[in-house]
Design brief:
The protein is an alpha/beta fold. The protein has a single domain, classed as Alpha-Beta Complex (Spore Coat Polysaccharide Biosynthesis Protein SpsA, Chain A), CATH 3.90.550. Helices cover 33% and strands 15% of the residues. The chain contains eight helices and nine strands. Strand 2, helix 2 and strand 3 form a beta-alpha-beta unit. It is globular and about 45 Å long. The two termini are 32 Å apart.
Length: 258
Amino acid sequence: MPSNEYLLVMTACIDPSAGHYRIDRADPATRLLDYQHALRFWLSYPDQRVRRILFIENSGYSLDSLIAIGGSENKLGKDTEFISLNCNWYPESSHYGYAEMRMLDLGLQQSRLRRETTHMIKVTGRLTFPALSRLLDHIPAGFDFVADARIWRTPWKKHTVPFVGTQLILFSHDFYASHLQMQYDRMAESRHWMESFFYRELSQLPSNPEHPRLLRFPRSVDPVGQPAHRSRSYSHPVQRITNAFRAAMRRLVPGWWL
């Protein structure tokens, strides 16, 4: 089977003020700095499998500073593409995942790099994932999707609705176009968030030996950066302990999807 040709897709919303959902990290200047930092990280990421970067932004904010970074701080010569949209709207009954799914659809339709690749690595654009290479080393060629599900319940934290993390999720372009493109209205009608909607849609599909479908990362890949919904960084000591425990359990008790 031919190797995967990856497109790293950074989704971004620099100015979230048009949306009704309130977040802690809402200042456009602060968020722009986050995106600039993350772009520099990916431009210098040495893995040759991550040599194409698509940056999609959905609030209509100027991308001039990011485009300048892509041109002047790109020592590895990565192929970059920047797409500016103004579509950060979602129904009152929904969540900003609606706007993110719509942004993905519109951005990928316009993208030159989409047509040159087979798979996307979709990342939340403000975050970085230093261990991405380790994940890419352990996933099969020709996969349909590689997601990381959370379906556990514990006495201290019960998830009533299973979900997959959407900060980092991988799809073949063909699979995404066939199963998830133009599905944001269905998501809004179901009143699911993007994470639980993706889990519902992906988990009900049959296995496909020719195009593997993984609902669990074979290796942990933890984000680095600042969440939008809380003040505690992903590098906080408590979070580091949680990540280490999760990574160990992934190998020792692989059936416990925590």
